[in-house]
Structures are given as structure tokens and as C-alpha cells.
Amino acid sequence: MAAPAAKGTSRTAQNDVASIKKKGPGALATAYLVIYNVVMTAGWLVIAIGLVRAYLSKGSYHGLYYSIERPLKFFQTGALLEILHCAVGIVPSSVVLTGFQVMSRVFLTWAVTHSVREVQNEDSVLLFVVAWTVTEIIRYSFYTFSLLNHLPYLIKWARYTLFIVLYPMGVTGELLTIYAALPYVQKTGLYSVTLPNKYNFSFDYYTFLILVMVSYIPLFPQLYFHMMRQRKKVLASGEEHQKSN
Amino acid sequence: LPPEGKALKDDEILQNLPVGTTATLYFKDLGPQVGWTMVFLCEYAGPLFIYLLFYFRLPYIYHHKHAFTSSPYPAVTLACVCHSIHYIKRLVETIFVHRFSHGTMPLRNIVRNCIYYWGFAAWLAYYINHPLYTPPYYGNKQVNYALAMFVICQAGNFSIHLALNNLRSDGSKARKIPYPTKNPFTWLFFFVSCPNYTYEAGAWFSFTIMTQCVPVGLFTLIGFIQMTIWAKGKHYTYIRDFKEYPDLRMAIIPFLL
């Protein structure tokens, strides 16, 4: 992070940044975002390579979660910064929407997969981890190239096409994993609070998980068809630019 | 065609507008609307009745052996009385006191608002009237102090609504700065722009202490956040519209917020 050389120049630099702000993030914010997106792309590549190596050495695709558990937790949790980016305004997305998306991933990573050890061996975990990994590698490289104003059509195409398969794949993996966790949550009373207690409050995590699963029914189609509409819009106008790329 | 500038007021007469012989009027379709009075009546009647369903422990809410029983704790009956009086007061104010500048709001709002009020009323009533309810830790002292504060805040809130109502007693729609009157409850106007919200937050805070119930606390917190947003909006509108607006006043919490 470069510090301003002298007080006079820093004020003019800030004025420039202030006038650029209306068009998008300032130069400093752009640099930070490029670094962030590059780091995230690299992180998910590490997870992808880890999965492939583990598969090759084990000879089967069972129980691969353990080989990428740490980087998965680190980089998926790191995505929380994206909420901050929206709140501060350097990324033009809705805080609520981004918050919702990131929190649902973090919820699955920590409150389900990490918390209920017995599901970590399930194949459904691999299903959503693979879906997330491919999606995130493409998404973060998309952002990186966009910020540098040099977006290869292939990346744009990939981002707005592969979701057609990856999104249902991820949702299936997530739902199956939550479903697999249910009996253990019920048996151990995980994260649950019962009456009576001096706060006069109760929470049943088992019921909560079921409600989460049910919420996929209205939410998934909305998000899926939103991406479909985005695809038509982006790729239709993209074809006109393709020749100039 | 996007129209520029603010919308015309309801009582402006076409002939008096500063336009030439031909004028173009832009209309905006606001979508299905519902009157504010109707919205408030629905929002407030719901919690009033729903709470009573739980207080009298109607069947299927709790275990069937508890149907139509009542709680042994006076705090629970007191909570029911307070909650009911609060919503009765709101209904009375809606019918007799409030004057609404805009007649209507979008239809979606009534659904969303009712879900919020009715849902929370059911949730907090469930715990307060539960057979396994635990009365407040410090017993009667806690309940009585909280009750006193609750009553004071209700009286305060009502006084402010009356004072605001009197600002437009001549039927005009012009905005005026509200000032403290002879009623001591209105003296909060020295310190905040929206003492009605201050008192409302205070009332729910007292209710939380009185029942010692986390869901009530959550309802109080969310309400406080929303009211702070509204208070800040009104506060800055006052400052913008009136050069002589008192400096000492904050939006909702004296000296702080």
C-alpha cells in the first residue's frame, strides 16, 4: 500500500479518487480487489488440486473431504470479506444478497459439515465441494479479469453457462448433506436450547435444519432463473463484442 | 418517460401552477394501494388477539394437559395486561389521533408488516405463557420497577402523539417544529426530535425486563433499530427544512443517537 509522498499531493490524489468514485472503485480499491480475487482464485485452485491428488493417491472418491478440509474452511470463510466490500461500496452488489449467499456457504461449511463429524464421509459432501470449487475458480478469475478490463470471452461464457450444471449439483450435495446430518443432530441435541431456562428461550436445531432445507424450494428456482436471465443478457451482448476481443 | 423533480401535492390547484397554456402531466402507477389506517388496524389487532390465544392456552399450542389452564405467576398475567393495553392504545390512536400525510401505502407492505407483527407476537407470547416459563430472576422487585417504567413510557408515547396531533389541529398540512408543552412527558422534546420513538423503545425495553424473555428482547432490538432509522430521517428533514431548529436535539436518544 503506497503512502502519499507529501501532504499537498495526497489531497489532490484524494480529489482524483473522489471524482473517480462515481465511476467505480478508486485505484487503491481496485488494486486491493485484484489482489483479493487473485488470492481467492489461487485458494480454490489449491482445493481443486488437493482433491485431484487425493483421488489419485487413494484410488477412490470416498472421504476426500479430509484432504481439503483446512483450505476449504479458510477460503470459504474468507469470502465473508465480500460482504464488507459491498457495505463499503467498492463492489456494486447488494449487501443483503451477497450476505445471504456467503452466509449460506459458511453455514454449510461450519454449522453442518464441520459440526456433524459423521457426515464428513458422505459422498454428498464431495458433490457440493466440487461444485463450489469449479464455480469459485471461474467466478474469482472472472472478477480479476473484469477489474483489469481484459475479460476473455471464455471466462465470461464459463461463468454464465457452467452454473446450469454446477448449481443444481451443488444444491443436491448441500441438501443431501443436511439430510444426512439430521439424525445425529436430533440424537445429540446439537446447538439446541430447551425450556425451562432463565432466558425463556428455546431453539431446536433439528427443526431449524428442516426449515433450511424447505427454504431451498422457493429460493433455488429464483436464483437459478435469475442467472438464466443474466446469461441471456450478458452472452447476447457479448457476441457483438466477440470479434473485437 | 421519467418525470423530473418532486411530485405535486394533493391540494395544489391546476390553475395556480406556474406553467404556460399547455402543461404535460406525468403519472406514476404506484401499484395496488391500501390506506394507512387499514394497515395499522390490521397490524395491531392481530397481536392483541394472538397474544390472548396463548395466554388462555388454547388447545394444540401447548401440551393438551395444559389446555385452558392458567399460569401461577402474577408476572404472566401482568404481561398479558400490559401487552393488551399497548395494542389497544395503538388502535385508539390509529382511529382517533393520528393524521397521515400520505393516504396510502403499497399493498405488499400490509402483508409484510402483518407477518412481522403477528409472527413476533405469537413467538413471544408462546414463551411468556408457556407452562415452563421461568419468572424474572429478581422477582417482584424486577417486575414492579419494569412495570412502572412501562407505564411511564406508555403515557409519554401517548402524550407525544397528542402533541404531534395538535401541531396540525387547524387542518393545515404544513410541517411545524414540535415543542415541549405544559405536559412533563413532552419535555423530552428538548432533547430529541422523535420522543415518541424514544418512549416506544423504552416501553418495550421495560417489557423485556418485566418478562425476562429473549424473544421480547429481540423484538425490542429490531424495533429500536427500525425506529432509529426513522428518527434519523425525520431529524435530518427537520434540520434541512428549518434554519432555527434547536441544536441540542438528537434523533432518538438524548445526547447520544
From TrEMBL, chain B:
3-oxo-5-alpha-steroid 4-dehydrogenase C-terminal domain segment(s): 104-257
Domain TECR-like N-terminal: 2-29
Gene3D superfamilies: Phosphatidylinositol 3-kinase Catalytic Subunit, Chain A, domain 1
UniProtKB keywords: Endoplasmic reticulum, Membrane, Oxidoreductase, Transmembrane, Transmembrane helix
Principal location class: endoplasmic reticulum
Superkingdom, natural source: Eukaryota
Record's keyword annotation contains Oxidoreductase: yes
Pfam family name, one: Steroid_dh
Membrane topology according to the record: Multi-pass membrane protein
Transmembrane segments: 34-56, 115-133, 145-164, 185-203, 209-231
InterPro entries: 3-oxo-5_a-steroid_4-DH_C, SRD5A/TECR, TECR-like_N
Subcellular location(s) of the protein: Endoplasmic reticulum; Membrane
PANTHER family: 3-OXO-5-ALPHA-STEROID 4-DEHYDROGENASE, STEROID 5-ALPHA REDUCTASE C-TERMINAL DOMAIN-CONTAINING PROTEIN
Family in the record: Belongs to the steroid 5-alpha reductase family.
Name of the protein described by the UniProt record: TECR reductase
Name of the gene: Tecr_0
